[in-house]
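Lay summary. Proteins are chains of building blocks that fold into shapes, and those shapes determine what they do. In this project we predict the shape from the chain. Here is one chain we studied, written as its sequence of building blocks.
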Amino acid sequence: MARAWLRLLLPCLLLLAAPIAAQDADAPIQQLLQEHAEIIEKSSRRTIGPAIDAIAASGLPEAQAVLERWQAKEMWIAEETGLFVRAEEIDRDTIRIFDFADGTEIGSVPDEGYTQLKPNSGIRGLIGAALVRFQLNDPAPENRATALHAIERDPELSHLAALRATLGDETDPALKDRKARLERLLTIRYGESDEERIEAIESFEGDLGVDVRATLNPLLATRIEVAEVRPEGDDIAGTLEPGSDALSNAEAYDLLVSAGLAKPRISREDKRAALAANIEGGRVGGVEVATLDTEAARDLAYATLASDGVVEPVATEAEIAAALSSHVFYERYTGASPLVAMAAAAAVSDIESTVALNQALDLGLDALSLASIYFLAAIGLAITFGVMGVINMAHGEFIMMGAYTGYVVQLFVPDYTLSILLAIPLAFMVTFSAGVAMERLVIRWLYHRPLETLLATFGVSIALQQIAKNIFGTQARPLTAPDWLDGSLVLNDIVSISYIRIAIFILALIFLAIFLVVMNRTRLGLEVRAVTQNPRMAASMGINPDKINMLTFGFGSGIAGIAGVAIGLYAKVTSEMGSDYIVQSFMTVVVGGVGNIWGTLLGASLVGVLQKGIEWLNPSNTLAAQTYMILFIILFIQFRPRGIIALKGRAAEA
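And here is the predicted shape, written in a compact code that computers can read:
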């Protein structure tokens, strides 16, 4: 019977043993794994490092595959032989195993005789760091870029040697620059000598990269200490004064107490509670309760109780002040050696100065961009207000009409570049016609009646908004910019400006030039200037002021429509968008000087710079910033009621 069972089991045993026998136990990668088998099998993060480093540094062609399979939990160990294999699970009880040496399939076996290695997240992170070495030499540039991104996200000491080893062999110029920069950053963190760390720090002088500041700031870490006399040494960062923003009196005294240089303190409330708890016969510590009306008297009574052992001895207010004044509080560098910390401090100071200059430049570009938007929005108002003296509260709605015109054009012309080129003249024609109609139907009957004009145009404004809501709805409509206007012009990590804003700035300059040509080189411009300066004299010379007023109002409205197309590329197109610019437009015109194009340009610049400056000082409250700006404009008008450039003629009289 036993022999019969043996005959039946022998083929099964041979099948089970066949895969193991087929595995190359003498392969170099298998021998390396066997050398570290004990710590690999235990998989402790504290002890696994040498095994991972040995595999990564072995130079064996199978090393990368072993680490990848180990990280993916695909490495198994045969319980009988102790050999390592790669395995894939077929079902709950069966696995397919492969030889690590050549990757060949060994066979399918039950998983009972094998143990799966399941590294935890910490070990997988160590394996991932080791794999970076192989990825840095990967033939595919995108894989090398991925490895650099992984190092940038989570740098380690082991990455420094890997970067240095592959830097000279890098063929891609962009990746080589990234590797060189990253190597210097890691040298700052993990360099072996102060000299090489300082050299790497100095190489980033004036660099605005966020990664540089993130690397340097930890080197400036300090610890606040206290002594009776300030110690000498290069590791002393500076002295702190108790009661300053950096060190409060309470923090300073707590530091004295923790250092054993002063007695603990007690709050006034706790002191009063202790005194109240020890009242005997109307006295506390021999002091009458009626006399405990000063802090000094309460300190004396508490000190008496402490001397009798009734309460714990604590410092009085006078002792606290004396202790603070008799000790020196200072900061000691703890993030790096003194020489490295001082080099980092000098670099950070230089970077902060450069950052401040670039922030000022970025703020100036934002102000210039905002000024160009205000100039486009206000130039038409400057014409109508200056020539006709009409307070047109519906000017913002002409901007809105121009933006909606651009939106409608894009519905029929899918090419965004072509649609914008068509929308600009079409918006001018639509809003020019609307302006002429408004002047003929409303404005012409209200000349020299500013209050009635204001009310009438305000009513027109509300009506136009409601018409837009009825046609287009209340949701914002997109006015899409062409692809070549996407993105920003990035000068560095701090200074950038969007291409749309650059386009609006250029458009503002173009319309400034067009306006100057029209006003100074054409008959229409001559007649407009004549009517502006003296309408009666112009009429006596054969000029029709009524016609000029109509054309001027239409021209100003048409420019507002073009401004709407430009602004729509930058802001949301809604029925209320005009109201967002009407106040700034009037401020721009009034501050610059009514009816003067150069005054409008200066006014837009002043309002744009002022608004951006106030927003920078008070970034958390935009409404407050606008309020402060309006108050400043009101104050400015008190001293310069006619604006920066005063206009002579009818506008000046208005």
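What the prediction tells us: The first helix runs from residue 2 to 22.
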